[in-house]
Every structure is written in structure tokens, then in C-alpha cells.
Amino acid sequence: MSDAGHVTLSCQFCDTLNDVTLARYEDHPKCGSCKKPFRLDRPIRVREDQFDKTVLEAGVPVLVDFYADWCGPCRTMSPTLDQIALDMAGKALVVKVDTDAAPTIGQRYGVRSIPYFAGFRNGELSGTLVGVQDPEALRGLVEPAGTGKTPS
Known about the structure:
single chain, alpha/beta, 5-stranded mixed sheet, 4 helices, about 20% helix, disordered C terminus
């Protein structure tokens, strides 16, 4: 388990794994190798081989969007996820997992229909939602207890 506020992210430019402190996102963290910035205010794509390190070892709550590029409802949810990532930057991580490219992760969590949203806290699945959702329901998957809707 990572320390509180720390996540391990793969650089989207050079693929180097980096330890990033989410609480310092306003300092514009950069990759230790190529020096390009991490955009923590938007959903981050996570590959199958990065899932455990990025999601399960995160020191912050994580909202995972299981999606596919061909899925119309998944595309419909993109602006909502963008806004949640922006609103929760520094407090939670929003990641996207392509179910076509990461079938093992989808199978592990019983993803049978997309979009499928999963909340994780301290490496454990804390709740799921399926289908098009309102922003408050999605926030409820990662906000502290009592501040959002109850996850299913």
C-alpha cells in the first residue's frame, strides 16, 4: 500500500513509472525521466499491467471507468468523468481501463456491461455502478462516507 496521497503512475510519454504525490498536483508534477507533466486533473488511462500498482496500491480513493472506445454510453460519460477528475484533483484519482485491451482486469471485477464504474479505497473494491450515471452517484464511489450517494 502506498503512503497517503501517493500514487504510482506510468508516464504517458515515456512509460516510466513515477511515484506522484496527488496532494501536490498544483505543483505540476513531472516525469522523473522525460520531465513531461502529469495531468492529474483528467482521467488517466491505465493498462492491464499497471492496474495493481496504480489502483490497488494508491494512497487515495480511485474511481475506475471500465470502458471501450466503440461504446456509445461510455463516450457519453466522458465529459462527466473529465469534470469529476478536475473537481477531485489532489484528493482522488480517476482512471480509465479499456476492457478490450485489459480483459483480465474486467473479468477479475465481474465487468459484464459497460460503462462500469468501480470505487477503490485502500486497495479494496468499495462499490460499483453500471451504465450511464449522474455525477453525484460517481462521486459517491470515491468521496468520504456520508458525502456522496451510497454505492451499490
